[in-house]
Design a protein that fits this description.
Elements: E1 2-7, E2 12-21, E3 35-36, E4 42-51, E5 56-58, H1 66-73
Antiparallel strand pairs: 1-2, 2-4, 3-4, 4-5
Length: about 80
């Protein structure tokens, strides 16, 4: 998992992990895109939120970027 951002006031962190795509119908939940890899494959990101108290909350869906994730979930 990679730390994307930390909100010190809410005491939470946003993390993401890379997910390799094997099915051609899987796309970004917001824009319908995907990230091409150098080897010819495709991948997306899975996000989760972690609180300072240890709670882990997985976010449903796969996204191609942090901006697509925030556009879909924070509006």
């Amino acid at each position: 998992m990679v730390l994307v951002k930390r909100d010190p006031f809410a005491r939470t962190e946003l993390h993401r992990e890379t997910v390799k795509l094997f099915k051609s119908e899987e796309t970004c939940r917001w824009c319908g895109g995907f990230k091409p890899s150098r080897t010819g494959g495709r991948y997306l990101y899975r996000f989760r939120s972690e609180s300072d108290g240890g709670r882990v909350m997985h976010v449903a869906g796969l996204y191609c970027s942090s901006s697509c994730f925030s556009d879909y979930n924070e509006r």
